[in-house]
């Protein structure tokens, strides 16, 4: 899942623990129940964010969060079957995510829905400020490619978030941990487009939002494999007016963070674009951003693979062999070139997310046309011919030897 790192101290989301009174089930029942919290997708512009609340008391009083349900800890216990181990969906530095169901048994009058409940670990690497950041952003943003935040629980020392349930799990799980069902080329490109749309929505706001932790484990897939961005604990308002960047503590995940951000702490929207390039590269090659099980020069995927992306003959030998025969040479080269640009060491050399979306949309349209032609047996589509696996491995080693660079140290 990657290793998180941080330095310095960020005061943006400081909170004072213990100043808020517990919220009980009795209080929760005073709120009229919602008939449905998963209606048809709508888009609510991030430019509507005016106030960044700094404590839970503000959350309850600020009308900007009236769309969120406030749950008691007892309700969360019922929804997750007392936080049973067999309900665990995942774990991380923040705590544990459980699968749950909210229905009449949890709160009278509540329409039955499946949910994911994230319980913050008080001893974890994330604290109240990250928890509040998540509520601040997902509580006010709505977009088809952002995970929907349904509500939260803040009672005594308990901090929980309730999201829509994403049945297919994370991109990381589907890309690297499943042995039987492999993501096809077309599905990977659709996921890349979905994620790009989510980032573009954040970046194109009147007040841009920088996601700051774009990686495969933060991209979740629903039952139809539609992709949505999750985990906004590290999100931050972007620069405004004459500002060129935001200076902040360095936080993120090894292998995904932009080099200029790691070196200087200067954060821009193009820092996210670098992370997008890393994920796109992972989907192209089928390897993790950081993999210490491989030879030392291949530990860092970007350093090893990026120089090979602009050499067509070398490119074919490093693409994920599980996708053999599923793409045309022209399309694969264009996607590789897009990843190459996103991974530019110079932030100004990276495209903006709206350009990334436009490129992926045009490629998806091309893919659909070529797939139709290929399935019809016209023979007009030229597919890569996969070389012998052993020969392929040796060729990649030879080609990458002179172009691999030293491993980045963060």
TrEMBL record:
Keywords: ATP-binding, Cell membrane, Kinase, Membrane, Nucleotide-binding, Plant defense, Serine/threonine-protein kinase, Transferase. It is found in: Cell membrane. InterPro entries: Kinase-like_dom_sf, Plant_Ser_Thr_Prot_Kinase, Prot_kinase_dom, Protein_kinase_ATP_BS, Ser-Thr/Tyr_kinase_cat_dom, Ser/Thr_kinase_AS. The keyword Glycoprotein does not apply. The keyword Coiled coil does not apply. It comes from Artemisia annua. It comes from the Eukaryota. ATP binds at residue 118. One of its GO terms (cellular component) is plasma membrane. This is non-specific serine/threonine protein kinase. One of its GO terms (biological process) is defense response. Residues 1-26, 371-410 are annotated as: Disordered. GO terms for molecular function: ATP binding; protein serine/threonine kinase activity. Belongs to the protein kinase superfamily. PROSITE patterns: PROTEIN_KINASE_ATP (PS00107), PROTEIN_KINASE_DOM (PS50011), PROTEIN_KINASE_ST (PS00108). Residues 1-24, 371-381 have a biased composition (Polar residues).
């Amino acid at each position: 899942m990657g290793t998180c790192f941080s330095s310095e101290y960020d005061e943006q989301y400081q909170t004072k623990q213990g100043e808020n009174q517990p919220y009980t089930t009795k209080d929760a029942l005073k709120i009229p129940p919602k008939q449905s919290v998963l209606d048809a997708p709508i888009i609510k512009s991030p430019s509507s964010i005016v106030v960044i609340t700094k404590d839970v008391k503000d959350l309850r009083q600020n009308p900007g969060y009236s769309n969120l349900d406030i749950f008691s800890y007892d309700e969360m216990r019922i929804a997750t079957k007392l936080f049973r181990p067999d309900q665990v969906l995942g774990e991380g530095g923040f705590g544990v995510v459980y699968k749950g169901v909210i229905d009449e048994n949890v709160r009278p009058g509540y329409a039955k829905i499946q949910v994911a409940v994230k319980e913050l670990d008080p001893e974890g690497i994330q604290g109240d400020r990250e928890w509040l950041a998540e509520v601040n952003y997902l509580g006010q943003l709505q977009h088809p490619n952002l995970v929907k935040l349904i509500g939260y629980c803040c009672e005594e020392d308990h901090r929980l978030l309730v999201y829509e349930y994403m049945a297919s799990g994370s991109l990381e799980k589907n890309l690297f941990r499943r042995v039987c069902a492999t993501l096809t080329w077309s599905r990977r490109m659709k996921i890349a487009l979905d994620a790009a749309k989510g980032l573009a929505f954040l970046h194109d706001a009147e007040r841009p939002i920088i996601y700051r932790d774009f990686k495969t484990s933060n991209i979740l897939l629903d039952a139809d494999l539609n992709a949505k961005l999750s985990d906004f604990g590290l999100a931050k308002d972007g620069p405004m007016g004459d500002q060129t960047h935001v200076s902040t503590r360095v936080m993120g995940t090894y292998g995904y963070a932009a080099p200029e951000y790691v070196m200087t702490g200067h954060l821009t929207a193009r820092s996210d674009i670098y992370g997008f390039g890393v994920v796109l590269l992972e989907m192209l090659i089928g390897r993790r951003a950081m993999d210490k099980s491989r030879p030392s020069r291949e530990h860092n995927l970007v350093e090893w693979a990026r120089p090979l992306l602009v050499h067509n003959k070398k490119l074919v030998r490093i693409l994920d062999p599980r996708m053999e025969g599923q793409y045309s040479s022209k399309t694969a080269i264009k996607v590789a070139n897009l990843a190459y640009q996103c991974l530019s060491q110079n932030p100004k050399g990276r495209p903006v997310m709206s350009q990334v979306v436009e490129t992926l949309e045009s490629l998806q349209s091309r893919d659909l046309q070529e797939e139709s032609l290929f399935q019809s047996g016209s023979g007009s589509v030229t597919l890569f011919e996969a070389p012998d696996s052993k020969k392929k491995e040796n060729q990649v080693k030879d080609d990458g030897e002179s172009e691999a660079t030293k491993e980045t140290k963060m």
